[in-house]
Design goal:
This protein is mostly helical and about 270 residues long. The protein has one domain: Rhopdopsin 7-helix transmembrane proteins. It is about 70% helix and about 0% strand. It is built from 10 helices and 2 strands; from the N terminus they run H-H-H-H-H-H-H-E-H-H-E-H. A two-stranded antiparallel ribbon has the order 1-2.
Length: about 270
């Protein structure tokens, strides 16, 4: 029987992907202005301008559904937080596809907004656990920060858009806070998940840059930017697993001590 996280996330996936397919088919996002053309793949004269960079975003939808499937079981995350993460990861898929499928200006905005949602979540959740900061105001402020930064229309080296700088700064701040949480020893989580998430993101970023220059083959269906999408989905999934593995360290120690005492008495 489907439980709430999987049901809500599945509905999010069906509705968002369905609306995006209709928007692409009927041109609701506007004309092709070449947005995203700097990510190597040559535009095709079809409804989907960049097929590899578009359909690779299915990785985010799959990752979101896997998160929701795992969230059926109790973990260090509340059911509400697990569902929120799953839905946000799903929305990265159609959000990014909007730009690569249409190369429209609005599609580009949807792509960036979906990224701000995830980075703002990571920052707000880290601040909530490290400093007791209310989640919602920080999350809203993070998304607003990304949107405002994205208004700066400048072609920047390495990161391309000012919005990418905002996205990166929020993620870096979240990583720093997560390290501080671990060092305080108040919570215990499986570090292997965090390392896997960060490693996938770093490798994805390297490929993301290389695919714009020496790794670029415009007419190939194997695109470096598509690999960035797939590794980004892997990173998001393992980040969730890190959150879900988190336990109160004091309670965990008491449980282990109790188990050890019971074993000694038997």
């Amino acid at each position: 029987m489907l439980r709430k996280p999987l049901l809500i996330t599945s509905l999010t996936a069906v509705v968002s992907c369905g609306l995006m397919a209709l928007a692409i088919r009927y041109g609701w996002l506007g004309d092709d202005v070449g947005r995203g053309a700097n990510f190597c793949e040559a535009a095709r004269n079809t409804f989907v301008r960049q097929p590899a960079n578009t359909f690779s975003n299915a990785g985010f939808v799959i990752a979101g559904l896997l998160i929701a499937w795992h969230a059926r079981n109790p973990s260090g995350l509340s059911r509400q937080m697990s569902t929120a993460i799953a839905c946000l990861v799903v929305l990265l898929g159609p959000g990014s596809a909007a730009m690569h499928a249409t190369q429209s200006e609005l599609g580009g905005h949807l792509d960036m907004t979906s990224m701000y949602l995830v980075s703002a979540f990571a920052l707000a959740y880290a601040l909530m656990r490290s400093h007791g900061t209310p989640f919602v105001p920080v999350f809203v402020a993070g998304v607003a920060f990304g949107e405002i930064a994205g208004l700066w229309d400048a072609d920047l080296p390495v990161v391309t858009y000012a919005g990418n700088v905002a996205f990166g700064l929020m993620l870096i701040a979240a990583i720093v806070l997560e390290v501080r949480i671990r060092r305080r020893g108040e919570k215990s989580a499986n570090a292997a998940y965090a390392i896997a998430s960060l490693a996938a993101l770093v490798i994805a970023f390297i490929i993301w840059n290389a695919s714009k220059t020496w790794l670029c083959d415009p007419h190939s269906l194997i695109q470096g930017h598509a690999i960035w999408h797939l590794l980004g989905a892997v990173s998001a999934y393992f980040l969730y697993r890190y959150y879900a593995s988190e336990e109160n360290a004091q309670r965990l120690r008491m449980t282990l001590d109790s188990s050890h005492t019971g074993s000694s008495d038997s």
